[in-house]
Amino acid sequence: MTSVPVTTEKAPTGVVRRFLSRRASWVPVFAAVVLLVVIFAAAQAYFGNILTPRVISALLLDNAYLFILAVGMTFVILTGGIDLSVGAVMAFTGMFGASLMRDGMPSAAVVPIMLLLGAAFGLAIGVLVQYFDVQPFIASLAAMFAARGLAFMVSLDSIKVEDGAILWLQSTRLQAGVGSWYITPTGIIALLVVLVGALVLAFTRFGRTIYAIGGSEQSARLMGLPVVRTKLLAYVVSGVCAGLAGVVFTAYTGASYPLNGIGTELDTIAAVVIGGTLLTGGSGYVVGSMIGVFVYGTIKTVISFLGADQSWTRISIGALLLMFVVVQRVIVARSNRR
Question: How many Cα atoms occupy the beta-carbon half-sphere of 314 within 13 Å?
Answer without folding.
Answer: 6
